[in-house]
Design brief:
482 residues, 10-stranded mixed β-sheet, two-stranded parallel ribbon
Length: 482
């Protein structure tokens, strides 16, 4: 009895101490959490979220659970609870922040329209691009591309969807969620926008026209479209070049024939690493192909590895040296790094929802978080002349510390107190100045990227195999017809 009484007194003292803590004093000791909360209040404030919902909601609606409250629940699941929706919903209910059941929240996530997911990515990302420090570049393009904006495209599939639905419960093997085609800006490493298809096993090439329309609205200058070999056929190249002034730099698909121009002999040069480069000019496609066009083919010979063969409409070798264009294309692999971080760091590998719509929304949310950390990372690098953003600063390590600080903050400061602190909104100029002061002096050696000095092993050839391969969307459609 005495021991239980003492335990109760300790709890009362602890609660009293927590209640007496000044939130401003706590935030002063947690600069990363402070910066992320400021970014959240700027780009994901209730007013902005309500606007996004009204513009992109389609046939969805709000009842007990508002869209801003729903977004906060998913944010807590991804940032604090490693992708666990159950933990986020349960703790929010204990604090009286969720006026409905877990099933209602899961149901809202399950039915969320794709249009709302796309708007949720695009609108906050546009605000974050305005906040990105202009003096910092993740990658510097060569001078020959000074008048262009490079845009990198690649596809991403939400994998390992949970088998909670009746239609998927007995499915063999792993099933995929939605398919996304994503556009990034290599100069800042920020995600620009994306389009999506509910069928995760579909080919993302069919999504190209919709993505080009979205990017054209966001990037008004001349665009240089950079993409892998699955977009290197005459059909996709024609789509990239529909807008006057746009250019293309894609990897040859290896299937479409190339007919060299006999009046313009090939030239052999070297890239910036001394490797052999062959420059050719000619027609991509047979004479009977209506989409046949005159192109330049650049081949990089890599000893012991597959050659890189590019197709481009930048045919002037003096204005656009082959070595520079190869350097630009080889930066395309950074989008693979982006996808890896979104999956592993921001918990896209643990899908909260069980439908393709839910996986697309979670992917969009992870991309917003990725862009947010890129902005934080850029301001940290901007404050130190001896640190290179891309080569030395690790987004993973910074996000790890962001998580720790946000969890510590949530344990000692109540949500309504935080909301009151973050309520006064700052203009873009004021917030940029604030971020520069708050993050410019921060640095820990643990934020440095780990350097792997071991030589890279060649990729092992995958053996062909047969097995179950399906998507949530296909299985649900099949169940409806039975």
């Amino acid at each position: 009895m005495a021991s239980s009484t003492a335990h109760g007194e300790i709890l009362e003292l602890s609660e009293a101490a927590v209640g007496s803590i000044d939130p401003l004093v706590v935030l002063a000791r947690l600069p990363l959490a402070d910066a992320v909360l400021k970014l959240f209040s700027h780009v994901l404030c209730p007013a902005n979220l309500d606007s996004i919902f009204e513009a992109h909601r389609g046939r969805s609606f709000e009842q007990t659970l508002s869209f801003p409250a729903f977004v906060q629940l998913i944010a807590d699941a991804l940032i604090e609870h490693k992708g666990s929706g159950r933990q986020s919903f349960k703790r929010a209910r204990e604090e009286g922040l969720v006026p409905t059941s877990d099933q209602a929240v899961y149901g809202k996530l399950r039915r969320i329209p794709v249009s709302l997911s796309l708007g949720f990515l695009e609108v906050p990302s546009s605000h974050l691009r305005q906040l990105y420090p202009t003096r910092v570049q993740a990658w510097t393009p060569p001078p020959c591309l000074a008048r262009m904006t490079p845009v990198v495209l690649d596809g991403k599939t939400a994998k390992n969807a949970a088998k909670r639905l009746n239609a998927t419960r007995n499915a063999l093997g792993k099933i995929s969620g939605g398919k996304m085609l994503v556009a990034t800006l290599p100069e800042s490493a920020l995600i620009l926008t994306m389009v999506a298809d509910l069928d995760g096993e579909s080919n993302e090439a069919k999504l190209v026209p919709d993505l080009l329309l979205r990017v054209n609205k966001l990037v008004k200058s001349m665009r240089l479209w950079i993409a892998d070999r699955q977009f290197g056929d005459p059909v996709q190249i024609g789509r990239f070049l529909e807008q006057e002034g746009d250019h293309v730099l894609v990897r040859w698909d290896g299937k479409t024939t190339f007919h060299a121009d006999p009046s313009r002999p090939a030239k052999t040069t070297c890239d910036h690493n001394g490797r052999t480069v062959i420059d050719e000019w000619g027609w991509l496609g047979a004479e009977s192909n209506k989409r046949r066009r005159y192109m330049r083919r650049i081949t990089l010979i890599r000893p012991g590895e597959e050659s890189v063969i590019l197709m481009t409409d930048l045919v002037d070798e003096a204005a656009y040296p082959a070595a520079d264009l190869l350097q630009v294309y080889l930066e395309r692999w950074q989008i693979e790094r982006v996808f890896q971080q979104i999956t592993e760091v921001f918990n896209l590998q643990r899908l909260i929802g069980s439908t393709a719509e839910a996986t697309i929304f979670q992917a969009a949310f992870c991309m917003v978080l990725y862009n947010m950390i890129q902005v934080v990372k850029a301001y940290i690098a901007d404050g130190r002349a001896d640190v290179k953003l891309t080569e030395e600063v690790s987004g993973e390590q910074i996000f790890y510390d962001v998580q720790r600080q946000l969890i510590a903050l949530s344990e000692v400061v109540k949500p309504d107190e935080l909301a009151a602190i973050e309520a006064p909104s700052l203009s873009v100029v004021e917030l940029r100045e604030w971020l520069s002061k708050r993050l410019g002096g921060l640095w820990h050696d643990r934020w440095k990227k780990a350097v792997n000095k071991k030589p890279r092993k060649p990729k092992a050839k995958k053996e062909s195999c047969f097995g179950a391969h399906n998507s949530v969307h296909r299985l649900r459609n099949l169940a409806r017809t039975e």
